[in-house]
Write a structure and sequence with these properties.
six-stranded mixed sheet, alpha/beta, 29 helices
Length: 927
């Protein structure tokens, strides 16, 4: 396959994917002329290029589809489901022909006459033009308008670039050249006497007679391919009014260099790179990371080495290179979602339903390797939601719902994971129906059916071969679906969680890692053997034995740990791996690992450090062992195995899916409890911050601290992160002394809070026991018999990012508050403030989930919503006052808070509490 054909296939595939999605949008928005113009341009570009390359089948199908689009554009045909479906069928055929062309290198023979006749019949159904009026029409109308000129120019320029004498056409950016030629031809055929082609193209350095002669010849060919007769083509050429000498008289110098800067000013800013080249670059970067790790391991043994400085610099450069290479592999998740609107549309037609698919977070990026793995699971979930979840229009009307069902997809970053949610507002999972089907298929016994809770019964939909469909159809009924979803997602280290309310809808939450190539891992030791465990799965580290005050207990022969009034099942690494060395009696470490909603502990002898590791596939003889997900090479050259948290969880008798319900039940019982990270400043005073706000804990020394505009900063993931000291202390580190930094991160911004010591993680209700006036504190609690101040993260965030003040907090009565904000960080930032002020806090990420919380009740006393969310989206049944929230970056934006009667700065603690107090005052007075 030559390079021209390969480039055409690549560009055509990109264009046809965009066309597929755009047509579905056009069916919903037929009055959008820009959208229609874009669809038409893509189709006729494919047609023109196919004609030039001699791809007759592709050109014929594209031409027939373009005829209908032309009728849409001219207003002669009104788009409806039938005509749009016909164009989509043409797009599907073009996809198949492109796939065959890519596989065989040449266009395969075939008969497409049935589809072409169908397309032509729809196009011919438009109003017929009067024959006698044709000769009286202007030239621009007779040639088919601007769309035909655009198409002819596409064909002409493709032919001109391929000609040996058309080499200078390649020096001009394609879009600029196409637009200039199109404007010149359109001006000529429209009768504009003030311009001609030679004048308009002179600025692009195409003013030699030989090049203009070639362009005119190619334009004649382009109009001929559109079906114009010779007389009309001659009239077009005459209208161009270009006086070109004969070729023999053309003595213009051809070797003069171009002096026009026009080409360079519009030069393309992107290049097309083969995926294989990116993979090779990733492999080289991975090897460089391994070498970096080996050098740093050597440096740890010789800290006074003269190579310490260069190696630290190499470490920074390698990290930057690694992140840059990872960025080249990142793609927006919209690439995986592109086919879903078309899928939902086709399912709606097939199932005779009305389906609206809504997407949020399309710009969220993840590794292309992960992206490919989630396409099939997403397709299965959309099909299940359309078939099993959403009701027919009649059923929805009887249930008091809108006739159009809604499927909502959302994606967001949470630490080193991507969280994807697929939710519908349909009938939900029918527990009785699932129970009956499971009994009929002997998946459970009658005794189990009576004892199983609703959540456990709902989990049965993930069982292979399970389906509640009454009959096998083209959409469902074969029992292949949700088991494929769970299997494929677990293969890439992800998890699937299910929540469903009968009559209201179902929500699937998928958590997957950002990348599978280079990950941050904890290096642990057991009986002299080292292992790596992905840090993203580790919740916390707990010491047992020795002077820790904790001990491992045994229940029914299984080891457990009492951790914050809960029993945590344990897996001893020594027994798991069959290691012979006797168990240690001194202090050991427990890695608390979470798989979905299930948590358990892994007992190891000690934990070494966190290290960026390169994931290598495990040897074939080890792939059948479920406890390993791969291997890696450490800095000292040792090859160690990477543990698979999901596989180890299978060692425990209670399955994660079954345990998830118990975990969620316990969490619901302790819904007022909050996990707190306890730290110590330079003195002995203890401080605490909600663990859900913490993004990461880093260990830094004096060499990591730099200064920007006189403010201390450190390099964090390729950006400068401000550093602030706890209790207002100056950020000043002694040489060779490490200090922990607690990182708080919100989207693209982060700050680091320098502390003296990480003490513990505890779980306790956030009920203020002592009000404080200290800057940077929300109040005080008694935690484990010690007075502990709750850190006001908003104060430090404002100090580092917005430089706003703080002051004493005003307490309110015990009431319920709802926080609506799309930012996970901002929701968690406000929660402790309101909890310390005596509120029971509920959070929601959008108006849909907020409405669900409002409908569930009890009633809320106050609602705090991000200022970019409209108050009109909230249900009228809610009588709670609503306050729109903005921050220092939005205060001067006209749209922010425009839909709210009351607004407040989310970072101004006193102002926000005062606004809440003022909003609640009428209710108190009425009481």
């Amino acid at each position: 396959m030559d390079d021209i054909l390969r480039d055409f296939i690549s560009e055509a595939n990109e264009s046809i994917e965009a066309l597929d999605q755009a047509l579905v949008r056009f069916e919903r928005e037929p009055e959008d002329p820009d959208l229609l113009s874009e669809i038409f341009r893509v189709m006729h570009t494919i047609k023109g290029t196919c004609g030039f390359l001699g791809l007759g089948r592709l050109a014929a199908v594209a031409h027939a589809g373009e005829n209908i689009l032309g009728q849409f554009r001219d207003g002669a045909l009104k788009p409806d489901q039938s005509s749009v479906s016909a164009v989509l069928d043409a797009v599907d055929l073009i996809k198949r022909l492109l796939a065959e062309l890519e596989s065989h290198g040449v266009e395969q023979p075939g008969d497409d006459s049935a589809l072409i006749q169908r397309l032509n019949a729809i196009a011919d159904a438009g109003p017929a033009e009067a024959p006698q009026a044709v000769s009286q029409e202007p030239l621009a109308t007779r040639i088919g308008g601007l769309s035909s000129v655009d198409c002819a120019v596409e064909i002409a320029l493709a032919k001109a670039r391929a000609a040996s004498e058309g080499v200078r056409f390649h020096a001009i950016q394609e879009d600029t050249l196409n637009a200039s030629v199109r404007d010149a031809v359109w001006a000529a055929v429209s009768g504009d006497p003030a311009t001609d082609m030679k004048t308009l193209l002179a600025g692009l350095d195409i003013d030699s007679d030989s090049e203009l002669r070639l362009l005119i010849s190619c334009l004649e060919h382009g109009f001929a391919e559109l079906g114009l007769d010779a007389a009309t083509i001659a009239e077009v050429v005459a209208a161009l009014a270009v006086d070109i000498p004969d070729a023999a008289q053309d003595q213009a110098p051809q070797n003069a260099p171009s002096s026009s800067p026009a080409g360079s000013s519009v030069a393309a800013q992107t290049i097309r790179v083969q995926v294989e080249s990116l993979e090779q670059l990733m492999n080289v970067a991975s090897e460089l990371v391994l070498i970096r790790n080996q050098l740093l391991q050597t440096l740890r043994g010789q800290p006074e080495s003269p190579f310490a400085g260069p190696l630290q610099r190499l470490n920074h450069v390698t990290t930057e290179l690694q992140e840059s290479v990872m960025t080249t592999r990142m793609q927006p998740i919209s690439a995986a979602w592109a086919k879903l609107p078309r899928l939902a549309r086709d399912l709606a037609i097939e199932l005779d339903k009305r389906i609206d698919i809504v997407m949020q977070g399309e710009e969220t990026e993840l590794d292309r390797q992960v992206l490919e793995q989630i396409k099939d699971p997403l397709t299965h979930m959309i099909r299940n939601a359309a078939d099993h979840g959403l009701e027919s229009p009649g059923e929805r009307a009887r249930a008091g719902k809108p006739e159009t069902g809604r499927i909502q997809l959302s994606a967001r970053h949470e630490g080193s994971h991507i969280v994807i949610e697929v939710a519908d507002d349909g009938r939900g999972l029918a527990v009785a129906k699932i129970r009956a089907k499971a009994l009929a298929q002997d998946l459970i016994t009658p005794a189990e059916a009576e004892s199983m809770s609703e959540a456990k019964i709902q989990q049965l939909i993930f069982h292979a071969g399970f389906s509640t469909a009454a009959a096998i159809t083209g959409v469902s009924g074969r029992g292949v679906g949700m088991d494929v979803v769970r299997t494929n997602i677990e293969k890439i280290g992800g998890t699937v969680e299910l929540t469903s309310t009968e009559g209201k809808g179902t929500r699937f939450t998928v958590r997957i890692p950002l990348t599978l190539t280079i990950v941050s891992a904890l290096i642990v030791d057991c009986c002299g053997e080292r292992f790596a465990l992905p840090q993203a799965s580790v919740v916390e580290l707990v010491g047992v034995g020795g002077g820790s005050g904790r001990a491992i207990e045994t229940i029914n022969g299984a080891p457990v740990l009492r951790l914050r009034d809960r029993l945590l099942p344990l897996v001893p690494m020594q027994e798991l791996m069959g290691l012979d060395q006797p168990s240690r009696d001194d202090e050991r470490s427990i890695l608390v690992v979470r798989v979905g909603a299930f948590s358990y502990g892994i007992i190891v002898d000690r934990v070494f450090d966190t290290e960026e590791i390169v994931v290598k596939p495990a040897a074939s003889v080890l792939r059948s062992i479920p406890y390993y997900s791969g291997a890696t090479i450490l800095g000292d050259g040792a090859v160690i195995m990477i543990l698979d948290p999901k596989g180890i969880a299978s060692r425990i008798s209670t399955s994660p899916s079954a345990e998830a319900e118990d975990t969620e039940t316990a969490a619901a019982a302790d819904s007022h409890n909050v996990q707190l990270l306890i730290v110590r400043g330079q003195g002995e005073a203890l401080k605490a911050t909600p663990l859900q706000l913490v993004s990461r804990i880093e260990e830094i020394d004096a060499s990591c601290v730099e200064y920007a505009n006189g403010k201390p900063v450190m390099q964090y993931r390729g950006q400068l992160m401000p550093l602030v000291g706890l209790e207002g202390e100056a950020v000043c580190l002694e040489q060779s002394v490490s200090r922990p930094v607690v990182v708080f991160e919100d989207d693209s911004r982060a700050i680091g809070l320098l502390v003296g010591e990480i003490v513990d993680i505890v779980e306790t209700p956030l009920h203020q026991q002592f009000r404080t006036t200290a800057r940077g504190a929300l109040g005080s609690l008694v935690i484990n018999d010690h007075v502990t101040d709750i850190i006001d993260i908003a104060h430090y965030w404002s100090e580092a990012v917005a430089a706003s003040g703080a002051g004493p907090a005003k307490a309110s009565g015990k009431r319920r508050a709802l926080i609506i904000d799309p930012s996970h960080f901002q929701r968690n930032l406000l929660s402790p403030l309101l909890a310390m002020a005596g509120f029971e806090v509920v959070t929601a990420e959008d108006s849909v989930s907020a409405n669900e919380a409002i409908e569930r009740g009890p009633a809320f006393d106050i609602i705090l919503a991000d200022a970019w969310i409209s108050e009109a989206d909230l249900p009228a049944s809610s009588q709670a006052p609503v306050i729109g929230l903005y921050d220092h970056e939005r205060a001067d934006v006209p749209h922010a808070g425009a839909s709210f009667r009351e607004t407040a700065n989310r970072l101004d603690r006193d102002g926000l509490l005062a606004a809440i107090d003022a909003a609640l005052r009428p209710a108190r007075n009425a009481a």
